[in-house]
Amino acid sequence: MAFGAFEGQIKAFHPCFGGEEGARYGRLHLPVSPRCNICCRFCSRGLGLSDNRPGVAAELLTRSGALETVKKALWLCPDITVVGIAGPGDPLATDDAVEVFGGVGRLYPKLIRCLSTNGLMLPRYADALKGVGVTSVTVTVNAVDSNVLKDIISAVTYDGTVYGGVRGAEILIRNQLDGIRLASKFAVVKVNTVLIPGVNDSHIGDIAKAAALAGANMYNIIPLIPQGEFQNTPPPDCRMLAEARETAEEYLPVFKHCKRCRADACGIPGVSEYAPSLYKNATETFSHG
After folding, report:
1. From the CB of residue 268, how many other CB atoms can be counted at a distance below 10 Å?
2. Beta carbons of 141 and 192 less than 8 angstroms apart
3. How far apart are CA 144 and CA 193, in angstroms?
4. How many domains does the chain have?
5. Beta-sheet pairing, 56-57 with 46-47
6. How far apart are CA 135 and CA 74, in angstroms?
7. Rg of the Cα trace of the chain?
8. In percent, how much of the chain has pLDDT > 90?
């Protein structure tokens, strides 16, 4: 059956897309991605139990451990309808996510499979993701102008070569937009942007327009969490966030209830959290490159 036949069901039963109705459903994030292939200046990924933000998980799971975790999570929270992979590194920097989604599809075919990526390797993995039944894809696009993006990312590792500055930004933007075009053929595509005052706050309309033209279905603007090289940059205030969303809505529906979930989240967003029952703190690490 064509993807279009499932699109309404995905939006209705995905807790991030279903609005008030979706608040009844749960999601599970499996932290199986050990590496990242870009260096964002605002990013501080890691392993631990205290930080409640993206890019953080209690531990890294093996592929077999991930499938056991799905089984346990469904026992703890039968309302889970989505299994997602969103870190703590980038899910397409290695093939772990694709392999795990394949296992989830074989064992739990009714669960929606959801991927969140920086998009660098999305064109290369699009066919594989379609093959393992991924029908929800989020791509984080922080600029579509390389002169803006070079101030947000410091390096891109692509095919074994590290690119910085404008060249690295150009490669990432090209692949992100190409990846969105490909993913939109088989998945609901959401674009995330981290709103950074003084850097990309006047660029939101350009990002939303480019994402819409590439085939994205919705847009999510995430306020900066001051950390990394942007640790001294104040987050956007409510007015700036509202203005950015209003600008983006000229091009795409805007998602407004993001909880900025951890890479090991489990439960109904904003209602229940079962991750402490699933994971223990570990000493494994992820890496860039």
Report:
1. 19
2. yes
3. 11
4. 1
5. parallel
6. 20
7. 17
8. 61
Ramachandran sector of residue 77 (left: φ over 0; alpha: ψ -120 to 50; beta: rest): beta
What does pTM read for this prediction?
A: 0.88
Q: What is the pLDDT of residue 287?
A: 36
Q: Does residue 279 fall inside a structural domain?
A: no
**Strand 266-267, strand 26-29: pairing:** antiparallel
Number of neighbouring beta carbons within 10 Å of residue 178: 16
- Judged on CB neighbours under 10 Å (0-12, 13-18, 19+), 79 is middle
Which tokens is 42 given?
């605002």
The answer to whether residue 28 is domain-embedded is yes
What domain range includes position 70? 4-270
What is d(CA 33, CA 73) in angstroms, rounded to the nearest whole number? 19
Burial class (CB in 10 A: 0-12, 13-18, 19+), 10: buried
pLDDT tens digits for range 161-202: 999 999 999 999 999 999 999 999 999 999 999 999 999 999
pLDDT at 242 over 70: yes
287, part of any domain: no
User: b/e string for 133-169 if b means 16 or more Cβ within 10 A?
Assistant: bbbbbbbbbbbbbbebbbbbbbbbbbeeeebebeebb
Q: Does a structural domain hold residue 280?
A: no
